[in-house]
Amino acid sequence: MSKLKKQIGNSILELITGNIVEQDTDAVVNAANKRLAPGGGVAGAIHRAAGPGLWEECKKLGGCETGEAKITSGHGLKAKYIIHTVGPVYSGSSRDPVDLKNSYLNSLKLASENGIKSISFPSISTGAFGYPTEPASRIALQTVIEYLKSHPEIELVRFVLFSQEDYSIYKKALDEILNE
Ligand code: AR6
């Protein structure tokens, strides 16, 4: 397992390889679809591990728009909360980074509002939604770093990367951002 830790203000930013459903942070983030329904990838893994009570709770939330975030309890996960956010679908006509930034930002805001001190993110939009990992990693890391500088109530943000290749892309982007 690869792991990297950096201090940002009073908080810790971590990159690891691993599985989002196994994280013991207060919250884990789900790379969700607009219905907040069980799907493939991260959403499928989270719904399977959390159990059917999660879908029952999600049904009552009325869906989630791109760039927005909603919170539920963690059900069968170690994490107490799941924050569901819908990243943008990347396509020829839709490459605006604002929605991806908003997915991270609105997830972090929900965390602060709910007293969450530690949170794990997957690489939102870079699977089924097709966002290239390199630009997505820069948006993800820049948004989190900027937020942590003014929000010391969040003590730990962990990026959980599913492959060694994704981990290396995030690590390179983080090194570049911190040296800018
Ligand atoms: N833990 C950590 N990362 C994972 C895991 C896991 N268990 N499983 C996959 N990844 P995706 P999206 C990585 O497709 O692009 C779903 O069907 C994966 O390798 O989960 O935002 C939903 O229902 C990739 O790097 O999310 C939506 O319809 C990253 O997580 C749609 O996919 C994101 O992949 C959302 O697509």
From TrEMBL:
**Per its UniProt record, what CDD domains does this chain match?**
Macro_OAADPr_deacetylase (cd02908)
Q: Which UniProt keywords apply?
A: Hydrolase
Q: InterPro entries this protein is in?
A: Macro_dom (IPR002589), Macro_dom-like (IPR043472)
Tell me the superkingdom of the source.
Bacteria
Q: Name one Pfam family in it.
A: Macro
| Domain Macro per the UniProt entry, residue ranges | 1-178
In Swiss-Prot or TrEMBL terms, this protein is called O-acetyl-ADP-ribose deacetylase
